[in-house]
């Protein structure tokens, strides 16, 4: 296996097991009036450009993008530059985009997709996902998190089912080759499948040893929905982390396994996921780590080690999206300890 190893989708397309996550948006803070202000400069956009180029040079063929990451222009420029210098051909790349929560109204779906294509400078996307099941009001000014005068998020109750219908037209019109979901729970996914004409091809979800999501993974794979795991390291650099949140990369079992295989903890986690036929999209602003993340196809975890990683599951979510927990389509209704837990040892 190599960095170009893939999962075959029901559409016939092949999703690379290793991809680059491009969420380098700077941390934000809210003022007392609810206004969103950046904490840092826009250097993150330069990071997006340089790291996307480095990843493609290192062999990455899946680039995971999103309107909400606010760097589509830089990522797209990097992609085009690597095509121009003949490092890669467009047809060798798998580019994922995402429909943001302010664009769930069916009238906004196509313009949002076209806007992303224009920013990326591409003619089509290989995959386009509904980023979240919850929606926000669209203020018409590209605000990602619209708020009312009291600083509360401005929720919208657009049903993701009618959003999906509009997504299907993007496939018909050739703007995207496939469509999928992100951050949806099992019931929401089933509801989409029961009403769709074009089934979801990919599901993105948080996945790491502390959140193995065995039941959801099995449901998707049985339904011929490929899985991409994000926040594979437990989002250690997230600005919304709490002091008592665990550090997945520091887990003793994972660190001991890293010594055993002469790999890093990050490589052990990525190998654990791809060995479960889950594609991964780790992000890094360090070019050496970007290259290091490709070195997960030259070894295999034995069955006992896979089971040892399975039983680390704590049903702990790094990204709980608590600010939208009152939205009618918030996907994580149950308390973490009540969410289903299944491990390989009990199968």
List the helices and strands and how they pair.
Elements: E1 6-8, E2 14-16, E3 19-21, E4 28-30, E5 36-38, H1 43-58, E6 62-64, H2 72-84, E7 94-99, H3 106-120, E8 127-130, E9 135-136, E10 155-156, H4 160-172, E11 179-182, H5 186-195, E12 202-206, H6 214-222, E13 226-230, H7 252-261, H8 265-274, E14 279-280, H9 287-292, H10 303-310
Parallel strand pairs: 3-6, 6-7, 7-8, 8-11, 11-12, 12-13, 13-14
Antiparallel strand pairs: 1-2, 4-5, 9-10
Offer a concise description of the structure:
By secondary structure, the chain is of the alpha/beta class. 32% of the residues lie in helices and 14% in strands.
Shape annotation:
globular
The radius of gyration is 19 Å
| Contiguous uncertain segments of 5+ residues | 27-37, 335-347
How far is the first residue's CA from the last residue's CA? 27 Å
Strand content: 5-15%
Instruction: Let me know the average pLDDT.
Output: 90
Q: Would you give an account of this structure?
A:
- The protein has helices spanning 43-58, 72-84, 106-120, 160-172, 186-195, 214-222, 252-261, 265-274, 287-292, 303-310, and strands at residues 6-8, 14-16, 19-21, 28-30, 36-38, 62-64, 94-99, 127-130, 135-136, 155-156, 179-182, 202-206, 226-230, 279-280.
- The chain has 10 helices and 14 strands.
- Residues 27-37 and 335-347 have low confidence and may be disordered.
- It is of the alpha/beta class.
- The strands form 4 sheets. An 8-stranded parallel beta sheet has the order 3-6-7-8-11-12-13-14. Strands 1-2 form a two-stranded antiparallel ribbon.
């Amino acid at each position: 296996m190599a960095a170009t190893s893939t999962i075959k989708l029901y559409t016939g397309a092949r999703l690379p097991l290793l991809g680059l996550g491009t969420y380098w948006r700077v941390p934000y803070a809210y003022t007392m009036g609810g206004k969103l202000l950046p904490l840092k400069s826009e250097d993150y956009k330069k990071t997006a450009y340089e790291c996307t180029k480095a990843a493609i040079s290192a062999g990455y063929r899946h680039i995971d993008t999103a309107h909400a990451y606010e760097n589509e222009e830089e990522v797209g420029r990097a992609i085009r530059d690597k095509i121009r210098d003949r490092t890669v051909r467009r047809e060798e790349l798998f580019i994922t985009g995402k429909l943001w929560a302010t664009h769930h109204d069916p009238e906004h779906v196509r313009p949002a997709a076209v806007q992303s294509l224009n920013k990326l400078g591409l003619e089509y996307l290989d995959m386009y996902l509904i980023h979240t099941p919850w929606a926000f009001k669209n203020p018409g000014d590209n605000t990602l998190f619209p708020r009312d005068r009291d600083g509360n998020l401005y929720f919208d109750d657009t049903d993701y089912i009618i959003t999906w219908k509009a997504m299907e037209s993007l496939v018909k019109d050739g703007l995207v080759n496939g469509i999928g979901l992100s951050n949806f729970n099992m019931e929401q996914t089933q509801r989409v499948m029961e009403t769709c004409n074009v089934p979801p091809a990919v599901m993105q979800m948080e996945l790491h040893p502390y959140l193995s999501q065995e039941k959801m993974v099995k449901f998707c794979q049985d339904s011929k929905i490929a899985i991409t795991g994000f926040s594979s390291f437990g989002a250690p650099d997230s600005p919304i982390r709490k002091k008592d949140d665990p550090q997945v990369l520091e887990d003793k079992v994972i660190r001991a396994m890293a010594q055993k295989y002469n790999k890093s903890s990050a490589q052990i986690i990525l190998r654990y996921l791809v060995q479960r036929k889950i594609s991964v999209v780790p992000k890094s602003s360090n070019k050496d780590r970007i290259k290091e993340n490709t070195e997960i196809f030259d070894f295999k975890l034995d069955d006992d080690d896979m089971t040892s990683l399975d039983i680390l599951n704590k049903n702990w979510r790094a990204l709980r999206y608590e600010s939208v927990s009152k939205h009618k389509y918030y996907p994580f209704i149950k308390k973490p300890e009540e969410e289903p837990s299944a491990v390989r040892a009990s199968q």
